Amino acid sequence: MTPNLAKYAVLMCMIVFFAQPIHMGLWLSRVAEVQTTLGLTKAQLALALLGMPSGLLPSLYFAGRTVEKLGPRRALLIVFVPMLLAGILPSLASGTASLFVALFIFGVILPFAQVSLNVFAAQVEKKFDVKIMNRAHGFWSMGIMAGSLIGVQLAALGLTAAPSLIITAAILTPTLIVIAYALPQIKTAQPKTKAQNALPQIPTAVWLIAAVVFGATIVEGAMIDWATVYMREIADAISGSEGLAVTVFSGFVTLGRFMGDALNRRFGTVFLVRLCIGSAISGLLVLVAGLGVASAFLGFALVGFGVSTIFPLGVSATAALSDNGEARNVSVMTFGALSGFLVGPPMIGFFADTFSLSTAFLLLLPGLMFSFWFAQRLSGNDRE
Known about the structure:
Helix content: over 70%
Distance between the termini: 26 Å
Strand content: under 5%
CATH topology of the largest domain: Growth Hormone, Chain: A
CATH class of the largest domain: Mainly Alpha
């Protein structure tokens, strides 16, 4: 094991985390265009968008098993092409049902790439004794942002969603394959007995880690879906500027992830988790107060920083539980954690119909308080 190999592994980890979500970022920049083209109401679009989490969550179980068997590098080599092809399908939809099906298919395939990325990063962390998970997810956020900027630029050139996604997929296909081939093989292949091949039971700690991460992901999902509505209805923002709330929120998520590894090394995981969760709680209280545009941006910034590091830390803590079954464990934790994206937005919406959106945000506080109290679960000290 040489320092050069460690540096190379970390570099390739950042590159693959950045490149993988570019195509998805482009799609996210064109959702409104597809809604207009198909003539969908907000309710119809919301129903169609449920296709991705509906496919993603059950697929995580099989993704964990597959990555455990093949290894993350080989799994990425196999999944990148179908992932890019599936990413084109939503732009070819003709209505609510077909858009739901297209996103469902994309959601089924996506976890195989996501689990592979997270397991690879966890293996790099364990083998070279470095903390890179937050930084890696920071590059993933940058990949989403880069994809969205590409989508905006192609739209300015007059390209609609379908040709934009097709052209970008054609460019990314050889690029991603080359990147996957260049990834170092972190784990050496060793003969295993049948007993070694049999995965152990899922550690109880996995579910506790998922519960802690869920407290943050339910907030993240709610902020992404309801930030612009909050700016219009509660903060009385100038029409056309509502989207800046998402920009501020996403920007501080990215900033927090790039700062996370350094803060983790200097102050420890428990301190970092409680710092972030405390920031998220403070931000929510600012939003509940509803004091205007400036305070709203401050609230979204605090919440963005607050949720930034929790999921990456959850991946590291889960992977650290065991060397056997780490992909399966990561996929199970991810299933529990990402359920927050499915639960949070509709929960806030139903409650806001009866009361107000700012009051509905209070529903997110108990989960954050739970995460603050059980922060030690993300310290990676539950290894079996």
